[in-house]
Amino acid sequence: MKQLRIKTYCHIKNKQVYLNGKLVFHFEEPSSLGDFMKKVYKHFKLKYTRFYKMDDISKLGFVASDLILKNLDGSNFKSEDVGLVLSNSNSTLVTDSHFQESINNYSDFYPSPSVFVYTLPNIMMGEISIRHGFKGENAFYIFERFQPEFIVDYINQLFLSQKLKACIGGWVDQSKDSYEAFIYWADNMEGDSAIKHTPSEIENIYNLT
Description:
Elements: E1 5-13, E2 16-19, E3 22-26, H1 33-43, H2 56-70, E4 82-88, H3 93-104, H4 113-116, H5 122-132, E5 138-142, H6 148-160, E6 166-174, E7 179-187, H7 199-206
Parallel strand pairs: 4-5, 4-6
Antiparallel strand pairs: 1-2, 1-7, 2-3, 6-7
């Protein structure tokens, strides 16, 4: 197998958006995750009608993925050759709590289907896959912290077994008080990227911001 290389990556946290290590957007005023993602969505002129129906963590993962794919030529890959392997530490806990609130009031009982549909983290991957037509293998894992060693090994195995030719990997997490998305695209096509798909290299670019 040719050496996998990371061709592009995005890091979103603390009301800042970094693309390939460079700050490309920031918003200094206080804002919720949902409001901040709307600002990013409009700033980069992303267009997708389903965006406004998503829960906040799906918006976070969706926008980060859209930004790395916006200027990436994916024409060399069939839809079934592109997969996703993502992770976080809180699953969809914030969305779960919102859904719980909708069923707590017995005098005004209304379990919201529009919220309930997002109470699984793989729904976020579904939104990304629908948007870009990806049909390859995907998996979502829950860890206490970002573990590049596991993500790298898992994705490398998918390539070795010839199940994928390109993959989006990373970390998309939301808690009550914080949020973070770190997403990258890896493939083994010819190119000028010097970033090898190894745990140490991923640690390096993850810690740039």
